[in-house]
Amino acid sequence: MILRPFLAGKPVGYRKSPGIGHPTKSKIESGVSGKDGYFVDIKAWNAEPAK
After folding, report:
1. 3 lies in some domain
2. Is the pTM of this model over 0.85?
């Protein structure tokens, strides 16, 4: 699975990991380094890799 975070409509990161798309894991958790964090408009969907 690939994780691509965006901030204000612009890509700010990229993460590819087989652990994220593990067949027996159904949760996605996101941590924040620092005092606190605020997440809004989070979207997740299944997609096939581009060929």
Report:
1. yes
2. no
> Domain range holding 12?
1-26
Query: CA distances (Å), 36 to each of 8, 21, 31, in order?
Result: 19, 27, 9
Q: What spatial distance separates the first Cα and last Cα of the chain, rounded to whole Å?
A: 15
Whether residue 51 lies inside any domain: the answer is no
| Residues 44 and 36: beta-carbon distance below 8 Å | no
| Residue 21 Cα to chain centre, angstroms | 11
Question: Once rounded to an integer, what is the mean pLDDT over residues 8-25?
Answer: 75
19 conformational bin, left if phi > 0, alpha if psi -120 to 50, beta if neither: alpha
